[in-house]
Amino acid sequence: MYRFLKRPLDFLISLTGLLVLSPFLVLIALIIKLESEGKVLFIQKRVGKDKVLFDIYKFRTMVSETPKDTPTHLLNDPTRFITRFGAFLRKSSLDELPQLLNILKGDMSIVGPRPALWNQDDLISERDKLNVNTLTPGLTGWAQINGRDELPILEKTILDGYYVQHLSFRLDIKIFFLTIFKVLRAEDIREGGQK
Predict the structure, then answer these.
(1) Pure H helices in the chain
(2) Which residues, at least 6 apart from 108, have a Cβ–Cβ distance to it below 8 Å?
(3) What is the pTM of this model?
(4) Best label site of 55, 87, 109, 129, fewest CB within 10 Å?
(5) DSSP 115
């Protein structure tokens, strides 16, 4: 039953979020534009429900010359690409706010497994084994609140598999509020080899 209500709830929450946060989003966009050259939004191909690719939106936190399809943790020295304001956005997770547009469009959900990069074949393959790729990816998820950037791929996939098996309104509410707690404490955020 909840699976049918999930999409309308996502739509209402994301629309409300965009309306309430719009002045704040405009302010962030202006600061990004003033600090460095390039577009305000960073757009990247990600794997969606049933492995259909979609464009994910984030506030740009790095200089425009940063390799686009390399996960941050695989960059040799990611900190040299990150702008000053970008570091704040990443630490506070405010760079993820444009994904409210992805949720509004139906590419993403508020809660679900985080969308893999289109070229993360190892993660996509492991997720296939546990039916994780059959779900709509989320802004936050069970793996996010249980380790986030600190998790190896296999462990992350097992946590995502747990979410597939136990998907419920109660679990989503738990993940939602634990995410707020984790974000406020800036826990489990890593930039490459940095903690």
Answers:
(1) 2-35, 84-92, 99-105, 121-129, 142-145, 153-166, 169-185
(2) 10, 48, 54, 56, 99, 102, 115, 136, 137, 138, 139
(3) 0.88
(4) 129
(5) P
